[in-house]
Amino acid sequence: MPVDLSMRVAKVSRRMVLRGAMALLSIGQILRPLWARALTARTGTSQSRPPEGVETAIVSCSVNGEHHHLMMDTRTTLLDLLREQLALTGTHKGCDHGQCGACTVLVNGQRVLSCLSLAAMHEGDSITTIEGLAAADGTLHPVQATFIDHDGFQCGYCTSGQICSAVGMLRELAAGNPSYVTADLSAHAEAVTEELHERMSGNLCRCSAYVGISAALSELAQRKVPA
């Protein structure tokens, strides 16, 4: 008896696909240490002697709660350090010019464009990437879960930067930090749509999933979700 594959495909919802993608990300977090060790063994990244004439620095910092003592070329960006030495490839390289926001991470709780920040500047800093937002048991961060609920992405390439930026933005909003569109600088900024859009304007989505992103941000701001 022939099987109607179209009926089976129709039962697979977008949300099921997105949750499956997040599950794969959690698996990636488990495999990341093995991948990082293999990458270091293959390329000699963190401990190998640099080429002659290259100026290096040794930086100690915390990344997603893990302490690292790293040797690097002083020209290395934070983005390249995360991706190439620590195998944290959830942070994406988009424009590499600080214009798209895809590489946004959190440094000491504040959002930073990692493609414009030299890794050697982060001695003693605490850095959080998209891989470090979920709880140790795999429970998603509220911002991650809300983005899924509102279909706040399509291809997903900008999403790690969008989510990290949203976490930092909510902290700024809760602290009362004004933005360019805040009307009264002496009052606490309200989480209105115009404020949220201005504060996230540095994160671009080429798929134009802004409707879902905006809905997710509005819900998070209304719920005053701790970031």
From TrEMBL:
Annotated Pfam families: Fer2, Fer2_2
Keywords attached to this entry: Iron, Metal-binding, Oxidoreductase
Highest taxon of source: Bacteria
InterPro entries reported for this sequence: 2Fe-2S-bd, 2Fe-2S-bd_dom_sf, 2Fe-2S_ferredoxin-like_sf, 2Fe-2S_ferredoxin-type, 2Fe2S_fd_BS, Aldehyde_Oxdr_Iron-Sulfur, Beta-grasp_dom_sf
Transmembrane stretches, start-end: none
Gene3D superfamilies according to UniProt: 3.10.20.30, [2Fe-2S]-binding domain (1.10.150.120)
Domain 2Fe-2S ferredoxin-type: 57-133
UniProt-listed SUPFAM superfamilies: 2Fe-2S ferredoxin-like, CO dehydrogenase ISP C-domain like
Protein name: Xanthine dehydrogenase iron-sulfur-binding subunit
Organism: Gluconobacter thailandicus NBRC 3257
